[in-house]
Amino acid sequence: MGRLAGKVAIITGASSGIGRATAIAFGHEGARMVCSDIRADAGPEGYEDDGQKATAEVILANGGQACFVQADVTQGKAVESLVLQAVERFGRLDIMVNNAGVFTRLAPIHEKTEEEYDFTMAVNTKGVWNGCQRAIRQFLKQGDGGKIVNIVSIAGVIGLPEEPAYCASKAAAANLTRKLAVDYGPHGINVNAICPNFLATAMTRRFHGDQDIKSTVEEITPLQRWGTTQDLVGPAIFLASAESDYVTGSLLMVDGGFTAK
Amino acid sequence: MPGRLDGEVAIITGAARGQGEAEARMFTREGAKVMLTDILDEQGEAVAQEIGNAARYIHLDVSQEDQWQKAIGETVETFGKLTILINNAGIGLKEDFGVEQTPLDVWNKVLAVNLTGAFLGMKYAIPAMREAGHGSIVNISSIAGIVGGGGLPAYHASKGGLRLLTKTAAIQYAKEKIRVNSIHPGGVDTAILDPFGEKWKQRAAKWHPVGRIAESDEIAYGVLYLASKESTFVTGTELIIDGGVTAQ
């Protein structure tokens, strides 16, 4: 029996990177997966060997249950429809992983554009807000709790050089996590976040591909390496499973010791 | 089905009852060999015997350096190596009432078990982990190590000290693939709460957004996560298992 046997989970940004690795792992653990993204395949920038294959197809090929639902997390109506489609397809919702996120470009605030700020906040903050809101409405309707896992970042708890919009957007998502945990504790709804540091994904390819930045990250990370999407799988399963029923409002750092300093 | 701790060997302190006992049972179910330690020898022996071949018990007062050396030595001798250390033993004393009220010997006793005990455990476990090629240390702190309270100064100081001892050790030993993390439970229904009475437990349940205190297994699952290979990129972190208390 898998650790998520029979559970119904939505993961946003599920086509590549963290979302894809997590969705496939949840499928292995027996969850019925609703993989959501703005496109079904991983795209060419990712580190997936089989990126042309949609995440849901991979799960189906592994013998699991999965479907793809296209949704733009910045649109409340789209996320509402995503939750409705999950419930129509699998009967209920147990787990919501708000993973979709964007990163525009490295630049200090005096060089950033308003468009960059708005886009970053729309996906990384409002997208998480939309996902939490619609999932919680469904959980309350079901009346037996639920699990929310927000993929935040170490940029939500410390200041990182450059990209101020990303840091602000992730900090907002981090405190939204704590806040919702307090409100919905009495309803058995757990709200937690995972804070990764630098992972090799499509979003960070331009940094991982730069030898200088790549080795700097290795030097300043106590475990001396970049994270991989697989490093997020264990923490995500833990927070999605019944094993963490008493964990709520927590930020799980998965950062190779970066924020211990 | 493969266990999540297949091939691992753990020492768990304070394992005769409560959280430590729950961890020992869960760890052996997941394939680990476990050396249970405690000062409650009769209870500790009984738990180890009940678990069976995967478990042994040895007396260990965690505040005593020579007893640590002996316990680590026996673990490696019995099970061939050491890869996991759970510094779980802890005390809370009713006499630890306030800065003016707490007698010095009470302060010293709490610090000796809760903080010095974990320090000594790491000091003697790390060489064995280096030998094994990897290790995971989980220090059981408390939410009292993150936030202040209206009393229990020695308890808060010991748990807060453990929080930063954890991070410091994590950074020092990251290169050797020895990970060190802390867990911060809120109220847990174990014997440590007995001196404070049933009423206190009922009051405590109300501070927790989830409306109850935890069962030992709910902490043990977090310990399992940090002890296992599922958290290989996690070190120097605080895992808070408190039903939302410190999110407030």
Structure, described:
The complex is a heterodimer of chains A (261) and B (248). Chain A is an alpha/beta fold. Helices cover 42% and strands 15% of the residues of chain A. Chain A has eight helices and seven strands; from the N terminus they run E-H-E-H-E-H-E-H-E-H-E-H-H-H-E. Chain A has a seven-stranded parallel beta sheet, sandwiched between helices. In chain A, helix 1 (17-28) crosses helix 8 and helix 3 runs parallel beside helix 4 (114-142). The termini of chain A are far apart. The model of chain A has no long low-confidence stretch (mean pLDDT 95). Chain B is α/β, with parallel strands linked by helices. Chain B contains seven helices and seven strands. A seven-stranded parallel beta sheet of chain B has the order 3-2-1-4-5-6-7, sandwiched between helices. In chain B, helix 4 (104-132) packs parallel to helix 5. The longest helix of chain B is centred in the middle third of the chain and has 29 residues, at 104-132. The N and C termini of chain B lie far apart (40 Å). The chains are: A alpha/beta (261), B alpha/beta (248). At the A-B interface, helix 5, helix 8 and strand 7 of A face helix 5, helix 7 and strand 7 of B.
